[in-house]
Description:
This protein is an all-alpha fold and 487 residues long. The protein has helices at residues 14-25, 28-40, 44-72, 76-86, 95-127, 135-147, 149-168, 171-198, 203-211, 220-232, 240-245, 254-282, 291-303, 308-341, 346-365, 381-408, 411-418, 422-447, 451-454, 459-475, 478-485.
Amino acid sequence: MASSEQPRIQWLGRWGFMLAATGSAVGLGNIWKFPYITGEYGGGAFVLVYLACIFAVGVPVMMSEIAFGRRGRGSPIDAIRRVVNESGRSSAWSLLGWMAMLCGFLILSFYVVVAGWSFSYLWKMLTGGLAGTSVDDMAAVFGANNANPLNLGFWSTLVTLITMVIVGKGVQEGIEKNVGWMMPGLVIMLLLLIVFGIFSGGFGDAVSFLFSFKAGSLSSEGMLAALGHAFFTLSLASGAILTYGSYLPKSASIGRTTISVAIADTAVALMAGLAIFPVIFANGMDPGEGPGLIFMSLPLAFQAMPLGTLFGILFFAMLSMAALTSSISMVEATVSWLCDNKGFSRRSAAWSTGIVLWLISTAAMLSFNLGADWTLAGKTFFDWLDYITSRWMMPLGGLGTVVLAGFVLKNETFRAELGLSPLPYTLWLAMVRYVSPLGILVIFADALGLYTVTFSAHWPWLLLILLAMMVLGELFSPRLKQALTKR
């Protein structure tokens, strides 16, 4: 039986996949990092570059991952192995699936700690535990929250438990059903916060901060920030999107679905900026504080505003929901693999994974208190998890995915799965063979601190010239001419 015909539970529809994939992409980084770097690097100019990076790097990689998942109908390991076997290639390529699955699991093991901050602040907002008169007071609250291992451990454990309960119920009853109300709920809360911001007195400043076209502010550093965020925000190379793609019905268009997810992810990030920055500007605070904006400045601002407690509760509920939709996606690859290969029931796979996850996340949580001095090469356990996954595993996994899709597999495999007409397919193939790998290599070099050594101030122009030469050359190659003309 062909791998794509193997029985496997599927999303009830394209909308279910879209909500789940968007939920995976929309995380804590969207709520604070994207609005902040947008304002810092040129507003509307940065958004345009970011969108170009999304469609040049993120979308082709995401389409490839979804195609691998749907073609292989399995966990990242099984799906990649089936697809490469279909093309007569070595099963060793399934190591990419192992790396993606492990990457998602390791990210989640420290992500639940950060997600626990959101839940703990929601509780503090509900119970009046966020009292303070200055940013220093709020910094002390944040420090005390992390210094207590029982407190921090409780909230990270709660995130783990909720995640496993939802995932344990299955794809349709657990993930699709819960994400089906979480994502609309998140958007509704964002809209309410935006309305609140319109009347706060700082909305005009927020719009100017986010959308003024300041091309002079867009440096090469800003272009790197756009490129890096475009890759990481879509949950690529972590096994999440590939596994979600394995549940996608055959009738759904991978191209249209991927573009919809990319647009929705960007829209939510911009809406978050319109919700957060009016409150910050109305209270005369600094919008460039990164994570401190969420856990120090905003609580203080909500405290000083009419109905601030209500909207503070709304904000941290939204933040907790965004964290939860991401954590659900990151564990699904592991649970899927245990069910498919080890004979686990859905619930036993979820709880077995949850126990291991809890043990590793507890070690990560202790990096903020009892284990703060347990370092290796100056990094805590939490720092090492972040470093290994974001700087090594994700870029390597993304690079391996596009090389496999663009150069190794038979042309017919992805042509059949993507279902694109000749011209869009040719564009995808050119992107996945040249544009995406170049972008990922630049991200990799920057993440490893090699950017200043390997690139001059004129690197964008040099890359564009090199890219144009390669794409033009490839457009006239036999393979792409065949792809363009074959119907």
